[in-house]
Amino acid sequence: MVRLLQKFSKNIIDKPLKVKLLLFIMPVIVLSVAMTGFFSYFYAIKQIKKNADDLLKGTVYQTGTFVNDRLAAIFEQLVILENEPSFQRLLLNDYPSSERFQRLHDVIDFYNQLNQTYQRYYPMVDSIYFQVNGRELQIFDEAPNRVGIHLEEWLSKYQGSPKGYYWLNDHPDQVFSTVRQRHVITIFKVLDSPRTTTKGILLINLKSDYFKELLTNGSLDNNSYLVLSSPDGQLFSDKVPPRYGVTNSIWRNLFRHHPTQGIMNIKSRMGRKLLLVFFQIKINRWSVAVVVPERDLLAEVGKIKKTVWVIVLLVVCLATLATVIIANGLVISLNALVKQVRRFENGDYNIQFNHRENNEIGVLAKALNGMLGTIQDLLYKIQTEQEQKRQFELNALQAQINPHFLYNTLGSIKHLIDMKENGQASKMVSALTNFFRIGISRGKEIITVAEELEHVRNYLMIQKMRYQENLDFEINVHPEIFNCYIIKLILQPIVENSIYHGIKNKKNTLGMIKISGWGEGENVIIEIYDNGIGMDQTTLNQVKHSLQIAYQEETTVSIGLRNVNERIRLHFGSQYGLTVESIEGQYTLVQVKIPSSIF
């Protein structure tokens, strides 16, 4: 057996690529398509059932929510009516002789309240009836044959509700007797307090047809129907076909364990399999349910089964034909591509992968061309950036000790000593020492924001002592960024630029430099503001343009700003750097943007 497998493997290895493709791909295609069809069929059944369940749940939920909202609105009106002052006085029936007209006024007022409720909810409300202490009020738009109830029978029949509210599902109207029998849904409040002799009832009849229409609008097809079910009865959306009718015991089971929602597999009176989905409404714990024959849900499964297997056979045939055609073209294209790849491996970057096919070989060739171009661009970019970086680092190193600044500072120190102002001279020497100590920073290129701020603070202190009352500064940086990292010698060149190109040229005005900084998301923002002479729009545009282009020696824009901007971009990326805003004669604002951490 082992020898046979070894012999078979050797024969396969030695076969041409086209034969290998056909031998390995065709069985995989046939098996994959067959399994796909097989599982698709069963998945279709499962998905159809799931979709049906979701559809039924959504239908029941939406219908139940709407029914609940309608019933809740009427219940709210009932509560409002019983809280009316006129209702409370009529209920107590305690009218002094001095207020003999108050009772009549209360009757009229409460009647108006009943009529307003009736008119407001006329599409839904059938009638309203109120009886207390033997007196009645009624709202009804027809002329009934008889009006009223046997109050004692109702009081003895309906007991046990903590607050005296009761609901009756679809039933013939028992209050207003008319020639045409009307079906209503009733909500009423029993007025029977053991503390008083008052007995009465406040009752609102709702039109069953109104709620039947709500249920009918939610029906899915001719065989399905919706039901508003309660312990005392049911309201159906339409006439139920006999073969899909459900026994009363099914409806009673909905309330046996008080479930709020669910799905039940049941059988009709004639043994048909049905699916019942129900949802309990909150206002009175009735249930809205939908009943659908199971065969209707799976009616499309047979069609799907035939369609799936026809597609499977068709796909197998087409896949076989396509595999043969692709194998022929693939072998030719692959051989040509392999030769070019070998030249590429040997360091020939001037080749072009010329394949015009729009298949995978063509895509691969285009990708290789793109990769080759990217490699060439990266090599050139790396070379250029390294040259620029070395130049900028050299410029930064040279800027660390500015002979002109050192000369002027030493001269100021000598002048202070000559003037016997040794204290000021000492401060200036201390500031100069700290300035160069941080500037050298043991050769480190990256320091903390706190160190950089201390460096520029010493520089400003020296300049303030030199310019005396002509210069002042403020540093207001949020401590949260003190430990963030920044490139050394970023702020000092900007401040120097502000002094010599902005403040120094503005006469008879106190020069002010303000440095502020804060964290902004994953970035650190530091702003340097001066109230110097600013820049006109042409100069400002030149500065902004210079900060966006590559480093050039031939430019009139401040070398310090350009140097700082390029150093930031080289270290942190092109999305970071400087932005400049200025108004001539008013101010210049330079914003430094760096990442909150380089690690």
Beta-strand content bin:
15-25%
- By CATH, the architecture of the domain at 401-595 is named 2-Layer Sandwich
Instruction: Indicate the mean pLDDT.
Output: 80
Give the biggest beta sheet. 5 strands, antiparallel
CATH superfamily of the domain at 401-595: Histidine kinase-like ATPase, C-terminal domain
CATH class of the domain at 401-595: Alpha Beta
Count of individual beta strands: 19
Question: Within the largest sheet, what's the order of strands?
Answer: 2-1-7-6-4
Number of helices: 16
What class, by secondary structure content? Answer: alpha+beta
The name CATH uses for the topology of the domain at 401-595 is Heat Shock Protein 90
Shape summary: flat
The value of Rg in angstroms is 46 Å
Low-confidence stretches: none
How far the N terminus sits from the C terminus, by CA atoms, comes to 60 Å
Helix content: 40-55%
Structural notes for this entry:
There is one protein chain. This protein is α+β, with helices and mostly antiparallel strands. Among the domains are: 84-211, Beta-Lactamase; 212-297, Beta-Lactamase, CATH 3.30.450; 401-595, Histidine kinase-like ATPase, C-terminal domain (Heat Shock Protein 90, 2-Layer Sandwich). The protein is 52% helix and 21% strand. It is built from 16 helices and 19 strands. It has helices spanning 2-14, 17-82, 85-92, 102-120, 151-157, 208-217, 248-254, 294-297, 301-345, 360-400, 403-418, 422-440, 449-467, 491-503, 537-548, 559-572, and strands at residues 125-132, 135-139, 146-147, 165-172, 176-177, 183-192, 199-207, 225-230, 233-236, 261-267, 273-280, 287-293, 446-448, 471-477, 485-487, 511-520, 523-530, 577-583, 587-595. The strands form five sheets. It has a five-stranded antiparallel β-sheet with strand order 2-1-7-6-4, with helices on both faces. A five-stranded antiparallel β-sheet has the order 9-8-12-11-10, sandwiched between helices. A five-stranded mixed β-sheet has the order 14-16-17-19-18. β10 and β11 form a beta hairpin. α11 (403-418) packs antiparallel against α12 (422-440). The longest helix is centred in the first third of the chain and has 66 residues, at 17-82.
